[in-house]
Amino acid sequence: MTVPTYELSPSVISKLFPYISGKHQPIDVAPGALMKALTAGFQKNIPMDLTEDLRAFSLGDHEPFYIIRGLETETDLPPTPAEGIYPEEGANFSINAIIGIMSLMDLFPHAYASENDGKLARAVVPASYAADTQGSHGSSQTLGFHSDGAFLRFEGEERAGFAPAPDFLFMFCNRGDASAKTTYISCDTLIEALPDWAVHVLLRPEFTVLPAQSFVNKIEDPSPVPILFDHEVYGPQIRYYQNRTTAHTAEAKKAVRLLERVFEFEDLFDEICLMPGDMMVINNHKALHGRTAFEAVQDGKDRWLTRIYGSRAKTIFDAREHFEDGSEHIWTDYIPELATKKPSIHNA
Ligand SMILES: O=C(O)CCC(=O)C(=O)O
Ligand SMILES: [Fe+2]
Q1: Is residue 331 over pLDDT 90?
Q2: Of 69, 158, 214, 272, which alpha carbon lies 20 to 30 A from 169's?
Q3: Residue 348 pLDDT
Q4: Dihedrals phi, psi of 112, to nearest 5 degrees
Q5: Which of 182, 214, 162 is nearest to 281 (CA)?
Q6: pLDDT digits (tens, 9 = 90+) for 149-193
Q7: To test ligand 1's pocket by mutation, which of 307, 308, 309 has the most ligand atoms within 8 angstroms of CB?
Q8: CA atoms within 13 A on the CB side of 121
Q9: What is the DSSP code (8-state) at residue 338?
Q10: Which pLDDT score is estimated for 337?
């Protein structure tokens, strides 16, 4: 399966340019005003067929991945940051483009208090101190299949103190690397490939998923959760993090071993080498993603993606009840009623 891809035409790209480049709305305006301007610019200029695809995609009525190609990056893009906390001299085009596309999907950008110092955008870059690790800052190790925030709460789960996992993740490529491929596999494909008994075991709360390295708040002894669950609106959903998931029963261990075998069948998953101007959007509950190993040089020209989470308003509002007691807080200032937390872009 190849990921649905939409190539923007040169005339659309030039119409979007004032919004993406911040000419009309500099990046330091209030988030609400920025979002409004980007929404207006994108609604007016994005072709109807792409808008319709994005709507279907956000409603879960579509393959769980989407790529938009041909977006512009800064001609004077600063050197790739050496670590992932978003630099002051950031890739603002990527942030504007992501927020614009999110708005067409009725999604809102948000962050987590314990990742990226609470900043909205994460620089997915190979950090020298993390080269050998399996996280978004790694490089020499394959980043296994996972969902982002797999240890967090999924809709319908009663887990006090856990914020919701993001509904969607957006990755915009500022600089590519020919050997770094983003891998992805859909939940439906996995379920089809597995025998019924394994699907049933994966639906039981018999697993522990640890936070990714990027989350500084390491939650101890989290309650066991299922890997698969059936959402009443969106159907089958998945959470997983390869090498960070423990199965607690003999059957659960067997089911996870089988799941990991499925990851090895090359015709079941797909991969794409993201190049400058590519935006990949993933439905984080309906698909897993990862990345192949690559070599980082630390010369300012290494691979650099901007990653921002986008969730439905309902998901973010539901998080409110978890704000005060918690192990994991969700932050946004793109929804005025919730705009009491840190500002979102280059916050101090
Ligand atoms: O580098 C990639 O292509 C994937 C990164 C990733 O999975 C993440 O930052 O969550
Ligand atoms: Fe990820």
Answers
A1: no
A2: 158
A3: 30
A4: -115, 140
A5: 182
A6: 998 888 778 776 778 899 999 999 999 999 999 999 999 999 999
A7: 307
A8: 28
A9: G
A10: 63
Tokens of 84: 């992932």
Q: Give per-residue burial for 71-96: e unless 16+ CB within 10 Å, then b.
A: bbbbeebeebbbebebbeebbbbbbb
CA of 25 to the centre of ligand 1 (A): 28
Question: Tokens 């522990």 label which residue?
Answer: 208
Q: What is the distance in A from the centroid of ligand 2 to the CA of 137?
A: 10
Ligand 1 touching residue 312 (CB < 6 A): no
The closest alpha carbon to 122, from 20, 183, 212, 18, belongs to 212
What's the CATH fold of domain 5-338? Double-stranded beta-helix (3.60.130)
| φ, ψ of residue 234 in degrees (nearest 5) | -95, 0
Ligand 1 atom closest to the Cα of residue 136 is: 9
The DSSP 8-state label assigned to residue 108 in this structure reads E
329 lines ligand 1 (CB under 6 A): no
Length of the chain: 348
Ligand 1 neighbour 307 (Cβ under 6 A): yes
The CA distance from 322 to 329, in Å, is: 7
Parse the chain into domains and list their residue ranges. 5-338
Statement: the pTM of the whole predicted model exceeds 0.70:
yes
User: Which residue, judged by its Cα, is nearest atom 5 of ligand 1?
Assistant: 136
Say how many Å lie between the CA of residue 146 and the centre of ligand 2.
6
